[in-house]
Design brief:
The chain has about 100 residues and is an alpha+beta fold. The protein has a single domain (about 5-95), classed as 2-Layer Sandwich (Alpha-Beta Plaits). The protein has 3 helices and 4 strands, in the order βαββααβ.
Length: about 100
């Protein structure tokens, strides 16, 4: 079963309150066995519109990623995030097919 990924791009307006979102979301992430792959950090914006913060979170499956998003724990945290940040969030299925040949 392919893994599921949250890809979030975020501009935080209120950094102190955003910490409340992160703390609130952690219960949902733990419950659905999420793992941060990217959590802010330096970036190189090459094309299109960028946001200040980029996050990639891995889940065991797309179903787990969706269940986490719709969980009461995450929805409570989401209310905080919506008040203090602008964001886009997509959930994608991981790729398990062939990879380009290594040189």
């Amino acid at each position: 079963m392919p893994k599921g990924y949250w890809i979030a791009r975020v501009d935080v307006r209120e950094p102190d309150r955003y910490k409340e979102y992160v703390a609130g979301a952690s219960a949902a992430f733990e419950k659905f066995r999420a793992r941060y792959l990217v959590r802010g950090g330096p970036m190189h914006s090459l094309e299109g519109r960028s946001r200040a913060r980029n996050v990639v979170i891995e889940f065991p499956s797309v179903e787990d990623a969706l269940a986490c998003y719709h969980s009461p724990e995450y929805q409570a945290a989401r209310e905080i995030r919506a008040a203090v940040a602008e964001a886009e969030l997509v959930i994608v299925e991981g790729y398990t097919g062939p990879q380009p040949a290594e040189s």
